[in-house]
Amino acid sequence: MPPATRQPPVDLRPVLPGSPVPGSRIAIPRTVRAGAILNGQVPVGSRVEIQGHVVPVDARGQFSYPVASDANGQLQVSIKRPAPDTRPPMSLRVQVLP
């Protein structure tokens, strides 16, 4: 009988490029209407800033940001994933529609 090989924990196993990694999803719409709520999904423990304001992220990785009714142009969104991820914050733009 061959010796048993130890498998690394699920979260440390390599994944193929393009494969979804549970808990790593980032979903933010490309557009939002002025006066609406911008809702998004990030990995739990991430730090989200919109227009320089820290936005709370709940225990499921969801956040909401009220867009001013007179907002126009683009919202600057910064997402810093939790440790051990050492990459710089991800910078995204959301277009504000009238």
Write a concise keyword list for the protein shown above:
single chain, mainly beta, elongated, 37% strand, two-stranded antiparallel sheet, 98 residues, 0% helix
Number of helices: 0
Overall pLDDT confidence: 87
Order of helices and strands: EEEEEEE
Amino-to-carboxy terminus distance: 69 Å
Helical content class? under 10%
Q: Which residues sit in consecutive blocks of at least 5 with pLDDT less than 50? A: none
Number of DSSP E strands: 7
What is the SS-derived class? mainly beta
Short description:
With 98 residues, the protein is mostly beta strands. The protein has no helices and seven strands. The strands form two sheets. A five-stranded mixed sheet has the order 1-7-6-3-4, with no helix packed on it. Strands 2-5 form a two-stranded antiparallel sheet.
Note down, in words, how this protein is organized.
- The chain is mainly beta and about 100 residues long.
- It contains no helices and 7 strands.
- It has a 5-stranded mixed beta sheet with strand order 1-7-6-3-4, with no helix packed on it. The chain has a two-stranded antiparallel ribbon with strand order 2-5.
- A hairpin with a 2-residue loop joins strand 3 and strand 4.
- It starts with about 30 loop residues before the first strand and ends with a strand.
- About 15% of the residues are buried.
Topology summary:
Blueprint: E1 31-33, E2 37-41, E3 47-50, E4 53-55, E5 62-66, E6 73-80, E7 90-97
Parallel strand pairs: 1-7
Antiparallel strand pairs: 2-5, 3-4, 3-6, 6-7
